[in-house]
Amino acid sequence: MRNLLQVTRANFLPLAVVIVLAGLAAAYYSQRSLNGLDALFVMIGAVLTHASVNAFNNYFDYRSRIDARTKKTPFSGGVEIIVKGSMKPSAALATAVGTLVGASLIGIYFLTRFFSVLLPITLYGLVLITLYTPVLSRVHGVSELVAGSGFGLMGLGTYVSQTGRLEAAGIAVFVPVTILVGLLLFLNEFPDAEVDKEAGRRHLVVLLGRKRARWLYLAGLLATYASILIAVVLAAAPVATLLCLVTIPISYKASRITLASHSQIPKLIPALGLNVILILSTILLLAIGFAIGSFI
User: Fold this and answer.
1) What's the chain look like in SS3?
2) This model's pTM is above 0.85
3) What pLDDT digit, counting tens, does each position of 98-156 carry?
4) Containing structural domain, residue 269
5) Which of 12, 101, 179, 281 has the smallest set of CB atoms within 10 Å of its CB?
């Protein structure tokens, strides 16, 4: 069980939970009702999807020998259970496939109800899960966008699973979630930049270098808050979603550390931790804002 929790990086799975909560809250805001059973199914499917992504990532990182060379931090560098022999590579792959099958069964259930709307989202997610680490991470400058949009579509897909429609409220979840999850991956790439480059990965930190990439992190934070403000101005989200602005002090501290210590990895680690807190809390506050907006 401990190996399963490690290979799926269970400590990061709350990200899927808060994203689904945001999608459900936005759906309730739009139609003032929720299907409880469907909400449970989509939550289970999202967690299984995220677990599958992580297990595939660990398996392919082992195959490429990246995990044997990266310096581990609590937030980056992968896990060592396969490298150290605590878990066989075949068991990691079986975990990845098994969780993907479970998520796919739930996806098929929703496809039978909202086929035309959910099919593109489902196919994109399937490609992302299976090809992100071995293929997409090697395409110049798309890693962060692809990963972020995959989780953004998790929130939008949750919205569609309740409403059957693509609407402004769903987009108001998709955009900030996409940016935030992209930033989660982006900052976690700083410690591994040299090893990733040697392994053929071409993400933005490798392409730009840490010194220039640090400014992109700040720009992403500003874009996140701007997207929420724009959604409120356009009436796509309730005023209560401005609760997300409460996380600005965390953003300020994380960006200040990143700007000052972008190449000093031990000093950068606190920013990685703050970044995780920032992303989870902002998405959760987005969900709370939609929920409050449903009653006022």
Assistant:
1) CHHHHHHCCHHHCHHHHHHHHHHHHHHHHHHCCCCHHHHHHHHHHHHHHHHHHHHHHHHHHHHCCCCCCCCCCCCCCCCCCCCCCCCCHHHHHHHHHHHHHHHHHHHHHHHCCCHHHHHHHHHHHHHHHHHCCCCHHHCCCCHHHHHHHHHHHHHHHHHHHHHCCCCHHHHHHHHHHHHHHHHHHHHHCCCCHHHHHHCCCCCHHHHHCHHHHHHHHHHHHHHHHHHHHHHHHCCCCCHHHHHHHHHHHHHHHHHHHHHHHCCCHHHHHHHHHHHHHHHHHHHHHHHHHHHHHCCC
2) yes
3) 999 999 999 999 999 999 999 999 999 999 888 888 888 788 888 899 999 999 999 99
4) 2-293
5) 101
